[in-house]
Write a structure and sequence with these properties.
The complex is a heterodimer of chains A (286) and B (535). With 286 residues, chain A is mainly α. Chain A is built from 7 helices and no strands. The N terminus of chain A is likely disordered. With 535 residues, chain B is an all-alpha fold. Chain B has one domain: Cytochrome c oxidase-like, subunit I domain (Cytochrome C Oxidase, Chain A, Up-down Bundle), CATH 1.20.210.10. The longest helix of chain B is centred in the first third of the chain and has 36 residues. The two termini of chain B are 35 Å apart. The chains are: A mainly alpha (286), B mainly alpha (535). At the A-B interface, helix 1, helix 2, helix 3 and helix 6 of A face helix 1, helix 4, helix 5, helix 7 and helix 8 of B.
Chain lengths: 286, 535
């Protein structure tokens, strides 16, 4: 590792003009437009969505490819590396705030709106017989069976926590320059992540077909599926990012000192891990 | 990458030479903070006129009681889209334009830390603005029933029942939110990682400090808004019950989530302005900024307080009394750090060798008129008084003193202050003064009567009104048209200044202090490639 006694004599890497940001914005516009149209029963909507998604995938593939190429050709020093680190940290912070909105909604319906609906003066309520209890689909929601905590969810907790451990083990491999430990740890993490997602999919199927637990099952169904659904989406993204990092490891990318992509993805993975712990405790268990 | 090249990698870079593609491709693909700043400012100016045209149509309708020009449905669309355009597509991009242009110049950074992300942040804005306004055009062809018609606050259950325009607004907000978060990350990283050597955090220019707190607030609150409109979307189309009491939800939950974002948003709009005002006051008073540390601590205090006071926006929705009291006192508490800022601004001018060029005029107009916003805000923060003023024109007048006099006039201050630096030309001082005086007089003509309308009980968001409100509404409409058309002077002056004019010196203003004035006017395409060292 080189240390710089006079960092101001360095040049910061300012990339050449790039078409990707503009094309990506166009892809996002197309995706949003298609989604809006399809939700409002325009037949062309899904095709427009698909086109937008294709553009996004194309740009993400090429943009990340470009950055990896710049990195491999030595364009970045520790100075740029630090920018990426700060950037990732604050990106994860914004993700925390996003989940906080849904946890906040869960807190609100459990502690405020459901008790308030049950505690209203009988002279002023449509639903005199409604009593506060959790889980609840509200006064007029459909009957459902809540998801138990100690079956698949507990297993999934163990799986995700283990995946956090295997990822850290892989990082130790990286730091010791033990590439086989690194690769094996990453592979295990990816497999555990995919198994987690498989169980999650099975749980959703079970909820919809046998428990009557759907998105429409009042506030319980809404908070249950939105929280676990967005979490599952993030696990999916994390798993894809881990696969990219795994592919790069197999090609011999990264060094003992310089492996921000690995660490950034690891931070992200630990973040989804922590969110899951919150979900397990507040959505499934308590 | 086992041997990380440090100095030698410079030779592999092409960024010393001034080469970029010509024509439109320059702007589509640029990674240069100055180009991106220019795009932000231009976009903000265009959207300012679009949002302004919408509200002039509204004021024309309100010139007389009765319905003359439009149906209430269209009126409702205009007021909501006006607000969203002005907040998200005019004020915020203008502030981000300043950040792009000025933060690297002021902290001695070679560019923004993440240049391609920077370009992405800008190019998300035109698609988002298109999504917001497209339903107006679609409705002309018989598709859908127009733009979002709920007001900018999108309150459930109205927004759950609304037409396709609400969906367009939801996705517009999502894309705007992505843009804001990207911009915020970039600004935070730039300030933390790219400051010139020796520039400690307590030597950071106040403008950068204001933006740093803004960026933190955006990262904390924009995702919550994204979550709220996502819940709205699933309530509308996928059968969830977040805001539906029959399913155990609550429409007031939406208000909590919305204003958890919405109140900090006020400070998101204003903190960059509070950051730039002291620079202008110091320059034209030929004195150092008074109370630098006090202002930094006030920014931090306001930032922290801003996320814990949100429910004062809906005192009348129904809340337990302890909650009312908490939100009332915490809101009033914000006036303490804000008062510190006001005293620092005045003390900066105190016994200075003042001169009154256009930026200084706007800065002083800002202090007086934004002061009125603060004082009327204290009235609204009072739970007992708010029961009468809530949802009246008093509120409309209050937040226009905050966001036009505080926000837009603050932006004007900054534009007049830094435009000679950006273009290398001086603007017309005569036109600037005309613009200032017409703006200040017509602004008060527009919004001062609205305080009285509100006190007399006129509700906001209503296209028709009782006869007792006729005179004040007529005055307000006349004021609004003068105000709107006066801004053409501004656009003309800026355009003239971009095209030519007296050459600006490097320092531009006699009393100017700061790194940006060490560069030429206009600065080279890439500046501070070798960072200055701050003693």
């Amino acid at each position: 590792m080189t240390t710089h006694t006079s960092p101001h004599l360095q040049h910061y890497f300012v990339p050449q003009p790039s078409p990707y940001p503009f094309i990506l914005s166009g892809g996002m516009f197309t995706l949003a437009l298609g989604f809006i149209l399809s939700m409002n029963a325009f037949a062309a909507g899904s095709w427009i969505m698909l086109a937008g998604a294709a553009v996004i995938v194309f740009v993400v593939y090429n943009w990340f490819g470009k950055v990896i190429g710049e990195n491999q050709s030595g364009s970045y020093s520790e100075w740029e590396d630090k920018s990426f680190r700060y950037g990732m940290i604050w990106f994860i912070a914004s993700e925390v705030a996003f989940f906080a909105a849904f946890f906040g909604a869960l807190f609100y319906v459990r502690n405020i709106s459901v008790p308030a609906l049950a505690g209203m003066d009988p002279a002023f309520t449509l639903w005199k017989d409604f009593t506060a209890a959790w889980p609840s689909a509200g006064p007029k929601g459909p009957a459902f069976t809540p998801m138990g905590a100690w079956g698949i969810p507990a297993l999934n907790t163990a799986i995700l926590l283990t995946s956090g451990a295997t990822l850290t083990w892989a990082h130790w491999g990286m730091l010791k320059n033990n590439r086989s430990q690194l690769n094996l740890g990453l592979l295990l993490t990816i497999v555990l992540g995919v198994v987690f997602l498989g169980f999650q999919a099975y749980e959703y199927y079970h909820a919809y077909t046998e428990l009557g637990l759907t998105l429409g099952a009042g506030v319980y169904g809404a908070t249950f599926f939105m929280l676990t659904g967005f979490h599952g989406f993030h696990v999916t993204l994390g798993a894809i990012m881990l696969m990219v990092v795994y592919g790069r490891c197999l090609r011999g990318h990264f060094s003992v000192e310089r492996h921000f992509a690995f660490e950034g993805v690891a931070w992200y993975w630990h973040f989804v891990d922590v969110v899951w712990l919150g979900l397990f405790i507040l959505v499934y268990w308590l | 990458m086992s041997t990380a090249p440090s100095i030698e990698h410079d030779t592999s870079h092409g960024h010393h030479t001034e080469h970029y593609q010509g024509g439109i491709m320059r702007w589509l693909t640029t990674t240069n903070h100055k180009d991106i700043g220019t795009m932000y400012m231009t976009f903000a100016l265009i959207m300012f006129f679009i949002g302004g045209a919408m509200i002039l149509a509204v004021r024309a309708e309100l010139f007389q009681p009765g319905l003359q020009l439009m149906q209430p449905e269209f009126f409702n669309q205009l007021i909501g889209v006006h607000a969203l355009v002005m907040i998200f597509a005019a004020l915020m991009p203008a502030a981000t334009g300043f950040a792009n242009w000025q933060i690297p110049l002021m902290i001695g950074a070679p560019d923004m830390a993440l240049p391609r992300i920077n370009n992405w942040g800008f190019w998300l804005l035109p698609p988002a603005a298109t999504l917001l306004t497209l339903p107006f055009i679609l409705a002309l062809f018989g598709i859908g029933d127009g733009a979002v018609n709920t007001g900018w606050t999108l309150y459930a259950p109205l927004s759950v029942q609304g037409g396709m325009g609400v969906d367009f607004a939801i996705f517009s907000i999502h894309i705007l939110g992505v843009s804001s978060i990207l911009g915020s990350i970039n600004i935070i990283v730039t300030i933390f990682n790219l400051r010139a050597p020796g520039m400690t955090m307590m030597k950071l220019p106040l403008f950068a400090w204001g933006w740093l707190i803004t960026a933190f607030l955006l990262i904390a609150t924009i995702p919550v808004l994204a979550g709220a409109v996502t819940m709205l979307l699933t309530d509308r189309h996928f059968g969830t019950s977040f805001f539906n009491a029959a399913g155990g939800g609550d429409p007031i939950l939406f208000q909590h989530l919305f204003w958890f974002f919405g109140h900090p948003e006020v400070y998101i709009l204003l903190l960059p302005i509070w950051g730039l005002i002291p620079h202008v006051l110091g320059t034209f008073s030929r004195k150092p900024i008074y109370g630098y540390k006090a202002q930094v601590y006030s920014f931090v205090a306001i930032g922290v307080l801003s996320v814990v006071v949100w429910a004062h926006h809906f005192f009348t929705a129904g809340m337990p009394v302890p909650a009312l009291l908490y939100f009332m006192y915490s809101t009033m508490f914000i006036s303490l750090p804000l008062a510190v800022l006001f005293f620092c601004w005045v003390a900066t001018m105190w016994r200075g060798a003042m001169s009154f060029e256009t930026p200084m005029l706007f800065a002083q107009g800002f202090i007086v008129l934004f002061g009125l916003a603060g004082l009327t805000g204290l009235v609204l923060a009072d739970v007992a008084a708010d029961a009468q003023y809530h949802h009246s024109y008093f509120v409309v007048a209050h937040f226009h003193y905050a966001l036009f006099a505080g926000g837009i006039m603050g932006v004007m201050t900054g534009v007049y202050y830094w435009l000679p630096k950006w273009t290398g030309h001086m603007f017309s001082e005569t036109l600037g003064k005309w613009h200032f005086w017409l703006t200040v007089i017509s602004f008060n003509l527009t919004f001062m009567p609205q305080f009285f309308l509100g006190l007399a009980g006129m509700p906001r968001r209503i296209p028709d009104y009782a006869l007792q409100f006729v005179e004040f509404n007529a005055i307000s409409t006349v004021g609004a048209f003068i105000l709107g058309f006066s801004q053409l002077i501004f656009a003309y002056n800026v355009w003239k200044c971009v095209k030519g004019g007296t050459r600006a010196t490097d320092k531009v203003w006699e009393g100017a202090e700061g790194l940006e004035w060490d560069l030429s006017s206009p600065p080279p395409h890439h500046s501070w490639e070798v960072q200055p060292v701050i003693k």
